[in-house]
Design goal:
single chain; alpha+beta; Heat Shock Protein 90; five-stranded mixed β-sheet; about 10% strand; elongated
Length: about 350
C-alpha cells in the first residue's frame, strides 16, 4: 500500500485533486464576493454552498478517474522501457519497444531501440572475431604439438623415468637385505612405497597435461560428457548433467564455453570440497543458458578476492566477454557456489539456419 502512494498514478490523482481544490476555492471566493458586494436575488448563500458541494463531489470523481487513466498510460510506457532495459541487461539485445505517441518517452524508446541494435551488432562482431581467433588458435595448436611432445618426453625422463629407476634399485637392495636384515629391508620397502606413490602422482599430473583443452571436433554436449566421465575416475564427486543436444552455437563459441565449464569444474575439484556438482545447459528463446552449481564450502564473492578461485573466475569472465555473454556468480560460505551464464545467439547464425 505504501508503494502505491508513491506511484505515478497516485501522483497524477493528487495533482488533479490539488487543481480541483484550487478551482473550488477560487469559485467560492468569487461567488461570495459577488454576494457581499452586489447581493443579487438569484445568488444566495445556500445556493453558493450547494453549488460548491455539488461541484466538489462531481470534480472529485472526475479528478480521480482522469488521474488514474492518465497516470496508468504513463506507467505503461515507463514499464515498457523498464522491461526493455531488463532485456538488455540479460543479453537479449534484439528486443525493442514501439510507441505511437510523439513525446519524450517515445523518443527515449526509439533511442533505446537504436542502442539495442548497436549492442547486437557488437555481439555479432565479437562472435565473428571469436571465429577468427579460433582458426588462429587451431593453427598455433598444431604448431605447438611437436614442442609439447618434446616437453613431455623431457618430463617423463626427468621425473617418472628416474623415479622408476630408483624404485628398481631400492627393490633390489631390499631383496638382498630381506633374509639377513629384515628391519632394514622393511624400511627400504617403505621408501619404495613412498617413491611409487610419488611416481604415480607425477604420472597423473602429466596425464592431466595431455587432457584436451579443445573439443577436437566434438559437439559441446559430447565434449562435456567426456570431460565429466574422465573427472569421475579421478575424484569422488557426484556429477548431475542436463545438457540439450542442439544448442545452435557457432563452433568458436562452443570452444569458449567448453573451456569456461572446464575452468569451473576445475575450481570445484580444487577448492570447493563438494560432494555434488550440477551442470545444466539449455536453449532459451534467444540465448543459451548455463547453470553450474556445487554443494561445497562456498566463499564470499566480494571479500575473498585473494583466493585462487578469483583468478579462475576472472579468466571465465574474460572468456564469456569475448562472445558477448554475461556471467553471474552467487556464493556464500557454507552454502556452495552457483554460476549462471547467458550467451545470446547471433542473429546472423539464426538467419543462416533458417535459410
Amino acid at each position: 500500500m505504501k508503494n502505491w502512494f508513491s506511484s505515478i498514478r497516485f501522483s497524477y490523482i493528487r495533482s488533479h485533486l490539488y487543481t480541483l481544490f484550487m478551482v473550488t476555492v477560487i469559485l467560492l471566493a468569487f461567488f461570495l464576493t459577488v454576494h457581499v458586494l452586489f447581493d443579487p436575488n438569484w445568488l444566495t448563500a445556500t445556493g453558493i454552498f450547494s453549488f460548491i458541494l455539488a461541484y466538489t463531489l462531481i470534480g472529485l470523481i472526475v479528478a480521480i478517474y482522469s488521474g488514474y487513466r492518465a497516470g496508468g498510460y504513463l506507467k505503461m510506457q515507463i514499464d515498457g522501457i523498464s522491461v526493455l532495459v531488463t532485456q538488455f541487461a540479460n543479453g537479449n539485445y534484439e528486443s525493442s519497444i514501439y510507441s505511437k505517441e510523439n513525446n519524450e518517452l517515445a523518443r527515449l524508446s526509439l533511442e533505446l531501440n537504436e542502442l539495442g541494435g548497436k549492442f547486437q551488432q557488437q555481439v555479432e562482431s565479437l562472435q565473428r572475431l571469436a571465429d577468427e581467433n579460433a582458426e588462429f588458435t587451431k593453427s598455433a595448436h598444431k604448431a605447438a604439438v611437436i614442442e609439447e611432445r618434446q616437453r613431455l618426453a623431457r618430463d617423463l625422463h626427468d621425473a617418472v623415468s628416474q623415479q622408476l629407476f630408483a624404485l628398481t634399485m631400492m627393490s633390489e637392495a631390499a631383496l638382498k637385505q630381506f633374509d639377513r636384515h629384515p628391519d632394514m629391508a622393511k624400511s627400504q620397502l617403505e621408501e619404495v612405497t613412498a617413491a611409487g606413490q610419488q611416481a604415480q602422482t607425477e604420472m597423473r599430473a602429466l596425464l592431466l597435461h595431455l587432457r584436451p583443452v579443445y573439443l577436437s571436433g566434438d559437439p559441446l554436449p559430447v565434449g562435456i560428457h567426456k570431460l565429466v566421465e574422465e573427472l569421475k575416475q579421478k575424484c569422488y564427486i557426484n556429477f548431475h548433467l542436463k545438457i540439450e543436444e542442439d544448442l545452435g552455437l557457432p563452433e568458436s563459441t562452443e570452444e569458449h564455453l567448453f573451456r569456461i565449464i572446464q575452468e569451473a569444474l576445475s575450481n570445484i575439484l580444487r577448492h570447493a570440497n563438494a560432494s555434488n556438482a550440477k551442470v545444466v545447459i539449455e536453449n532459451r528463446q534467444r540465448e543459451v543458458y548455463v547453470h553450474i552449481a556445487d554443494d561445497g564450502d562456498g566463499f564470499n564473492v566480494r571479500e575473498d578476492s585473494t583466493r585462487k578461485t578469483s583468478y579462475g573466475l576472472k579468466t571465465m569472465k574474460e572468456r564469456i566477454g569475448e562472445v558477448g555473454g554475461t556471467l553471474n556468480v552467487r556464493s556464500s560460505k557454507g552454502e556452495g557456489t552457483y554460476i549462471d551464464i547467458r550467451i545470446p545467439k547471433s542473429s546472423v547464425l539464426n538467419e543462416g539456419k533458417e535459410d
